[in-house]
Amino acid sequence: MSLVPLPESLVPFLDPYLPKPINEKRPFVTLTYAQSLDSRIAAQSGVQTKLSHLETKTMTHYLRSKHDAILVGINTVLADDPKLNCRYDGGSGGQIKIRPIVLDPLHKWQYSESNLRKICDAGQGLAPYILVDESVKDVEQPVLLSQGGKVVKLPLLKNRANNWHMIFDKLYEMDIESVMVEGGACVINDLLGGCGPVDSVIVTVAPVFLGENGVQVSPKTGVSLTDVSWWTGIQDSVLCARL
Ligand SMILES: NC(=O)c1ccc[n+]([C@@H]2O[C@H](COP(=O)([O-])OP(=O)(O)OC[C@H]3O[C@@H](n4cnc5c(N)ncnc54)[C@H](OP(=O)(O)O)[C@@H]3O)[C@@H](O)[C@H]2O)c1
């Protein structure tokens, strides 16, 4: 499905929060997701839930066009079977490629049967880099490799509570200079809670309550945001800020 046009006012609104060169050997990290008024990002665990209006969906693809990679946790991939490509072309008619990164320590995901593979087969996106724990065996994925994807082994489970710096350092080593972290809740809560670097936070707020069975974003301890700006569209509002 093609995207609706990007609201023009979003361009100057988002600009200060887009990736810029940083004086560190790690990627610029943007944390971005859509939530309900009761801070839920899905109606139930494992259930894909559409929250964004079409114009903020276009915004997500615009943001993707400004990053080298998108990172998601394995539960998001298993629940949503997402395409994780960029369908915003800025009117150029060309395809902007962004690298999907899947954090799958126990190697639960089969790329060969996924929507992401179909997108890659159709030349509409890049094959993912799958981050697995160093202890995982049998990671052969010939299709993935032939399409330019990789299985990357890291000591993810040894220091599960404090491995985000290592993850981002590894991405930087693989020439990824900006990464858009899109979820799910486990990943978002870690990063909001200070377990890793975050340079920008961009949250779409949809006018809906998903209820107490929803997947909740709520970091372990309270966090205040700074440098806050709000944009309001037809239905959703967007918060841009820094941690
Ligand atoms: N509204 C939105 O913007 C949005 C965006 C994305 C996703 N979602 C929703 O979010 C839900 C999924 O969220 P979720 O919290 O269940 O899962 P998740 O964050 O997608 O994935 C969590 C899993 O990723 C792995 N992981 C995360 N952080 C890790 C770390 N630091 N080190 C090693 N492994 C790590 C672990 O896998 P193991 O358990 O295998 O160790 C963990 O259980 C889905 O329903 C999806 O639809 C919504």
The unreliable regions are none
Give the neighbour order of strands across the main sheet.
Answer: 6-5-4-3-7-1-8-11-10
Q: Which CATH first-tier class would you pick?
A: Alpha Beta
| CATH architecture field | 3-Layer(aba) Sandwich
CATH topology: Dihydrofolate Reductase, subunit A
Strand content: 15-25%
Report the bound ligands by name, code or SMILES. NADP nicotinamide-adenine-dinucleotide phosphate
Tally of individual helices? 7
Give a concise summary.
The chain is of the alpha/beta class and 243 residues long. It has helices at 10-14, 54-65, 74-80, 115-121, 142-146, 164-173, 185-192, and strands at 28-35, 40-42, 69-73, 99-103, 129-133, 150-154, 178-183, 200-205, 215-216, 226-232, 237-242. The protein has a 9-stranded mixed beta sheet, with helices on both faces. A two-stranded antiparallel ribbon has the order 2-9.
Structural commentary:
This protein is α/β, with parallel strands linked by helices and 243 residues long. It has a single domain (10-242), classed as Dihydrofolate Reductase, subunit A, CATH 3.40.430. It is 22% helix and 24% strand. The chain has helices at 10-14, 54-65, 74-80, 115-121, 142-146, 164-173, 185-192, and strands at residues 28-35, 40-42, 69-73, 99-103, 129-133, 150-154, 178-183, 200-205, 215-216, 226-232, 237-242. The strands form two sheets. Strands 6-5-4-3-7-1-8-11-10 form a nine-stranded mixed sheet, sandwiched between helices. The longest helix has 12 residues, at 54-65. The mean pLDDT is 96. Residues 33-34, 41-42, 45-48, 51, 72-76, 79-80, 103, 105-106, 108, 156, 160, 163-164, 182-187, 190, 215 line the site of NADP nicotinamide-adenine-dinucleotide phosphate (NAP).
